[in-house]
């Protein structure tokens, strides 16, 4: 087996394809988006990820991007699985279509690996039957699910160093997939059945979502109790078995804000799972409540400046960002909203430069915790703003410095202020 066809050249598919190519595979990367394919073939990556550009240049001789699937020994599916938001059901159209595009090329002995996150049972109920339209039965071709685990900004590092879980249709499928991942994975590789692997991925992200929800609830309780949650969490985490996560303006990103809902498709017992989602989804409303208290009395075009529209700090990714909900809610209440984000190039709202974004504004609200915000001097900003208010939802800034420059500062979860 030495030729792979990777379907989906996004945040997971592209780095995986390049890692395979840099480890001896001849790789064809497939994406339906012509623009992305052209960019990649010109040696440019469509998103920022440390090390990815360099890797793309390195594998030039045995990697090509194109829009059509072709024959290969291994087919790896890494397309996205969005959520149909109004009904909270996985939209499996892209994985379904990937399988439809693969089956005409399937030959006995080929291996198909699904990396995309799916509700438990999807591989067996939906994907394998499509692949069997090739006239081959699973067993004649091999099938494995190996959910991705890499975090943006550290994707390549984590793809190489994290442990992986592989669910195989049978032992041979799992072993074949393991052999391929072993080419670049330095972590341990654990084998199981397909449905368990699908479930494991979902409970990993749900675990994080529930724990962020707990931190967000603690932040609100702390405010009621006159406690600073950031100090309290730091102290609680000195306990050897406690590790409370950080409160914030809500959970974004393509995975944690979505995957927990996939668990709810086959079970009616997802109470904590759903509640955590709702708590995290309500955080933009809570942050607006804080901003509203600072903006009281400003009648003439009250204006909010959002710092950081990315879904988290130091990245340019705005998928499912809580900033969007915050902005919509603020606009619905009649606030004018301006955005500043030094990382993000494309967003539903115009991204302004710093001076323009704060000029005439009444309140800064930090949504994404970009470290670069710590270097901003409050004195200069104070001169440009109409009213000097700031809401720090990430406990990012040196608050004393901002207070000295005349700002009223509200920190999420600080009941002492
Ligand atoms: N967040 C908080 N408080 C925290 C940690 C995170 O509010 O203490 C927020 C972030 O600001 C962000 C969201 O949660 O809006 C998610 O960020 P994240 O860093 O927790 O995770 P992602 O979405 O970037 O990546 C996750 C990872 N999953 C886990 O850590 C269990 C990653 O390993 C997965 O590969 C990825 O989802 C995925 O693609 O499934």
Describe this structure in a few short sentences:
This protein is α/β, with parallel strands linked by helices.
Quote the beta fraction.
Answer: 15-25%
- The computed structural class is alpha/beta
Number of separate strands = 16
Give the N-to-C terminal Cα separation: 63 Å
Dominant shape: elongated
Overall average residue pLDDT: 97
What's the arrangement of strands in the largest beta sheet?
3-2-1-4-7-8-9-10
Please give the radius of gyration in angstroms. 24 Å
What binds here, in terms of ligands, is:
ligand SAJ
Low confidence ranges: none
Largest sheet: 8 strands, mixed
Could you estimate the helical fraction of the residues in percent?
25-40%
- Helical stretch count? 16
Core attributes:
single chain, about 425 residues, alpha/beta, 8-stranded mixed β-sheet, 6-stranded parallel β-sheet, 16 helices, about 40% helix, about 15% strand, binds ligand SAJ
Description:
There is one protein chain. By secondary structure, the chain is α/β, with parallel strands linked by helices. It has helices at 13-21, 34-41, 52-58, 93-102, 122-131, 155-161, 171-181, 194-225, 229-236, 259-263, 271-281, 283-295, 322-332, 354-358, 378-384, 399-404; strands at residues 3-7, 26-30, 63-66, 74-77, 83-84, 89-90, 111-114, 142-145, 164-168, 189-193, 303-307, 336-340, 351-352, 363-366, 389-392, 408-411. The strands form three sheets. The protein has an eight-stranded mixed β-sheet, sandwiched between helices. The protein has a six-stranded parallel β-sheet with strand order 13-12-11-14-15-16. It has a two-stranded antiparallel ribbon with strand order 5-6. Helix 4 runs parallel beside helix 5, helix 8 (194-225) packs across helix 11 and helix 12 (283-295) packs across helix 13. The mean pLDDT is 97. The structure holds ligand SAJ. The site of ligand SAJ has 19 residues, from helix 8.
